Amino acid sequence: MSDKNEMGKVKGKAKEATGKLTGNRRMETEGKTDQAKAKAKDALGGAGDRAKGVKDSMTDDDGH
Predict the structure, then answer these.
(1) CA–CA separation, 17 and 28 (whole Å)
(2) What is the dihedral of CA 10, 11, 14, 20, to 10 degrees?
(3) Between residues 54 and 15, which one has the greater pLDDT?
(4) What's the mean pLDDT when you consider all of the chain?
(5) Measured between alpha carbons, how far is 17 from 52 in angstroms, rounded to an integer?
(6) Quick one: which of 18, 46, 21, 50 has its CA closest to 34?
(7) What is the pLDDT of residue 21?
(8) What's the 3-state SS for the chain?
């Protein structure tokens, strides 16, 4: 999980809450969307890390 993605989740949560408090449905929806984007980026980053781990485990000690 990157700090950038975590910050995106926090900002999205704040935007969603502000939208709810003010009755601004668009802002509320934007907040939910921001959170979903950050979660998706986290998932993609994790998949890349796992793929690198598999590749590394398939090579022998001298890198071949």
Answers:
(1) 7
(2) -120
(3) 15
(4) 85
(5) 38
(6) 18
(7) 98
(8) CCHHHHHHHHHHHHHHHHHHHHCCHHHHHHHHHHHHHHHHHHHHHHHHHHHHHHHHHHCCCCCC
**Span of 12-26, 30-44, 49-63 with lowest mean pLDDT:** 49-63
Q: Give the C-alpha separation, 43 to 13, whole Å.
A: 18
Task: Kindly list the distances between the CA atom of residue 9 and the CA atoms of 6, 12, 23, 54, 57, in Å, as whole numbers in the listed order.
Answer: 5, 5, 21, 29, 33
Average pLDDT value for residue range 30-34: 97
Pair 37, 11: CB distance under 8 Å: no
